[in-house]
């Protein structure tokens, strides 16, 4: 089951998985360097800063002294992460991991960033265009609308027999690759999967990152260089929201990317008589912002109020919000700006059977709480959270463990010895002394078999 | 409150109090010139280090915020606010301002600030210009932080960094202490990096009380290293890193009557005001120390 919180971080793991030479090439771009540093765990960031102006190799011993003795775990995680991303390079002469130094390319770029204070990757178009650029509020609306349209396409596969509107082709492919919808078999329309249901309950950042990740993962199929693509995507995050940038100056590959991102609402493309330009929306800043570990980007105003009697009120006009709520809430009636429903055992159980967990539901409800409800503690009434968890436990009363059954022992002594051995290694699940049978865990079967062989061997002699 | 004690991420709000007292820096550079030292630590060099430090903070997390408050001899002013919305006469200049980097904004504001300082000083006549208005800038920083904490969540974790050059100003003792205690109350650590010649007893006490870090770099030329190694550490990482601990803290108080640092003095039994000499009535709360009875009963000597 994909963990909701790690999805956005996985992007950097994908970057780390690139071959070393390609990764080093990535660090030619100051924007990638900054995005990579910001994605690191807090401790690792501090290490990068400390080593930034150190040219010589630093021994791992002295780096270990930076951390407190009871924080060595965190220290190792930080160093591992830095090594994975080749931010730290092994510079030891004899033993591996003896001393480290910063990746020289990254070091050079970051030093430059500190001296100049960063700035923006490319020049915005001159002010004469400013009058034709939509206001920030309009841009936000546009981004939200586009993104909701994308998600609605996904939701539509959940309820109707087939998508009510034919799905955007490249989008459908991306959804399929991400395992969010099933691949179409013959005439049967694609159905939403368990992962797809969970995807709907994630926050926008995590969702966006999962889509972008799939997009990059499939870059090679479409004859794009994944390193170039990563560079460009990370660079986009550093552009100023709401300013126009020239589209014609981009390479054909980048123009393609821009078009696909515009469909997600990350950018808006406008065209004049001669020029075309794109305007990053607030979703674009997420591209560089949301990858940092543990940081919570401010989400939009919530709208959901839950009462102790399991009634759910959502003050929203968004069709998407209502559809998502419908995943685990029985909707009762809808007014122009209000959706009313209640959490029932049936509605929640349906959600469980589509693979949504109680924690995901509660997190969703907490995250989208109406400001009035959010100011209270707990945000979601305890009776409701407890009941949801109890309903989930109801489903988990039976636990399955793969196992082997052993029977027909030659003597009672052998049986006893085997039972004792099984108990010692923690493999015993059930034993029946009268019938001389026992059941052991499947993962210890090898040990069990060897032991039984050894037991019966002397008797054969 | 629990949130404030255990930060979950490393997003910081750093308020930097920049000592821009022209008299202090002027004296420093003229002294350096007299001794014909080429390596003297001038204001220009100081600012290079500070600007590099500010950029480093932005590098660490895109959500980090920085505010710079200039501390002068007679006034204080906000020099830079990374969240700030520039008020511009028209849209075009607004765009121009937006394009400026933090460095350009700060240096421009700093020039304005120092120019204003000079005018202020001429108008007000002679105040003691050796001292910087630390109490004023501390209060401004705390006000700003209160504004942030009362704004919409999520809040970044605030901390104050004092870059102090000029010596402690005894007349500001009470105001500074009040600021320190209110920082302690709102759980805002005060860090201090002293680049002047004297150690600062005020800032030692401030860091001790609020749980911040006090450093007096032995070589001010390497200021950036100190800033990056110690003061760039966010409050989350501080739980896991070895950081310089408090050395001996000068806990001496200043008397309220002559603003002198004293080892031993008299404390008003009603309002705890400190005096260097025995008084008949407390000048702060007007308590009468029963002059006809033994004065020792009302006025206890205070051990340091």
Automatic annotation (TrEMBL), chain A:
<dbReference type="InterPro" id="IPR040662">
    <property type="entry name" value="Tfb2_C"/>
</dbReference>
<dbReference type="InterPro" id="IPR004598">
    <property type="entry name" value="TFIIH_p52/Tfb2"/>
</dbReference>
<dbReference type="GO" id="GO:0005634">
    <property type="term" value="C:nucleus"/>
</dbReference>
<dbReference type="Pfam" id="PF03849">
    <property type="entry name" value="Tfb2"/>
</dbReference>
<keyword id="KW-0805">Transcription regulation</keyword>
<keyword id="KW-0539">Nucleus</keyword>
<keyword id="KW-0234">DNA repair</keyword>
<comment type="similarity">
    <text>Belongs to the TFB2 family.</text>
</comment>
<comment type="function">
    <text>Component of the general transcription and DNA repair factor IIH (TFIIH) core complex which is involved in general and transcription-coupled nucleotide excision repair (NER) of damaged DNA.</text>
</comment>
<dbReference type="Pfam" id="PF18307">
    <property type="entry name" value="Tfb2_C"/>
</dbReference>
<dbReference type="GO" id="GO:0006281">
    <property type="term" value="P:DNA repair"/>
</dbReference>
<keyword id="KW-0227">DNA damage</keyword>
<feature type="domain" description="Transcription factor Tfb2 C-terminal">
    <location>
        <begin position="386"/>
        <end position="453"/>
    </location>
</feature>
<protein>
    <recommendedName>
        <fullName>RNA polymerase II transcription factor B subunit 2</fullName>
    </recommendedName>
</protein>
<keyword id="KW-0804">Transcription</keyword>
From TrEMBL, chain B:
<dbReference type="GO" id="GO:0005675">
    <property type="term" value="C:transcription factor TFIIH holo complex"/>
</dbReference>
<protein>
    <recommendedName>
        <fullName>General transcription and DNA repair factor IIH subunit TFB4</fullName>
    </recommendedName>
</protein>
<keyword id="KW-0479">Metal-binding</keyword>
<keyword id="KW-0805">Transcription regulation</keyword>
<keyword id="KW-0234">DNA repair</keyword>
<dbReference type="GO" id="GO:0006289">
    <property type="term" value="P:nucleotide-excision repair"/>
</dbReference>
<dbReference type="InterPro" id="IPR036465">
    <property type="entry name" value="vWFA_dom_sf"/>
</dbReference>
<keyword id="KW-0539">Nucleus</keyword>
<keyword id="KW-0227">DNA damage</keyword>
<keyword id="KW-0863">Zinc-finger</keyword>
<comment type="subunit">
    <text>Component of the 7-subunit TFIIH core complex composed of XPB, XPD, TFB1/GTF2H1, GTF2H2/P44, TFB4/GTF2H3, TFB2/GTF2H4 and TFB5/GTF2H5, which is active in NER. The core complex associates with the 3-subunit CDK-activating kinase (CAK) module composed of CYCH1/cyclin H1, CDKD and MAT1/At4g30820 to form the 10-subunit holoenzyme (holo-TFIIH) active in transcription.</text>
</comment>
<comment type="similarity">
    <text>Belongs to the TFB4 family.</text>
</comment>
<keyword id="KW-0862">Zinc</keyword>
<dbReference type="Pfam" id="PF03850">
    <property type="entry name" value="Tfb4"/>
</dbReference>
<dbReference type="InterPro" id="IPR004600">
    <property type="entry name" value="TFIIH_Tfb4/GTF2H3"/>
</dbReference>
<dbReference type="GO" id="GO:0000439">
    <property type="term" value="C:transcription factor TFIIH core complex"/>
</dbReference>
<dbReference type="GO" id="GO:0008270">
    <property type="term" value="F:zinc ion binding"/>
</dbReference>
<comment type="function">
    <text>Component of the general transcription and DNA repair factor IIH (TFIIH) core complex, which is involved in general and transcription-coupled nucleotide excision repair (NER) of damaged DNA and, when complexed to CAK, in RNA transcription by RNA polymerase II. In NER, TFIIH acts by opening DNA around the lesion to allow the excision of the damaged oligonucleotide and its replacement by a new DNA fragment. In transcription, TFIIH has an essential role in transcription initiation.</text>
</comment>
<keyword id="KW-0804">Transcription</keyword>
